[in-house]
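#struct-pred

JT: dropping the chains for the assembly here, can someone run the whole complex?
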Amino acid sequence: GAGVSQSPSNKVTEKGKDVELRCDPISGHTALYWYRQRLGQGLEFLIYFQGNSAPDKSGLPSDRFSAERTGESVSTLTIQRTQQEDSAVYLCASSLIPTVGDTQYFGPGTRLTVL
Amino acid sequence: DQQVKQNSPSLSVQEGRISILNCDYTNSMFDYFLWYKKYPAEGPTFLISISSIKDKNEDGRFTVFLNKSAKHLSLHIVPSQPGDSAVYFCAASESNTGKLIFGQGTTLQVKP
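RK: done, full complex below.
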């Protein structure tokens, strides 16, 4: 079956522009997670969704970052007024339910470069 | 503060030998631990996990050991194969959430 997909795979933008990153989770997965990986670092948790509500947004770095999810489907991560430090690979993962022990399946990521 | 640490950025082993990847954590509330493997330009894939009520979990060539008193876990790969060459991430979670806290990763190279 289809895995987690993300688009675009690569995005180059100029400082100050807004960007939208999209994640299509595995069908039927109620939980959806966003992480980012900056160069040479591990994955940082950003936000997770249970259905279309976000019980934990604690990892969002600033109010320039926001995310939404439509039902138990597509999610969009929006970064406003991008800065160079936002350059990273943004990874999305989904799982059947948002609980420890339920395997998270990751998409290939979106590589964001802010010039 | 880094709650999950992988202090070795890289490891090189000969094919057929054992690979041991290490991970330390600081948060005593973590009660579930996972290892993910990542190839370039792909997302991480789940490898093996362990609950804090256990000290060992084995799956084929992969074994994870947990030492709660030392807040340390390790992944053993025996025998190592060239296809195991990848970045390995240790991750931890608390029981009331699926949120994962990752280490920085260790790049494993298995030489033929």
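JT: nice. The radius of gyration of chain A is 13 Å. Chain A has a mean pLDDT of 93.
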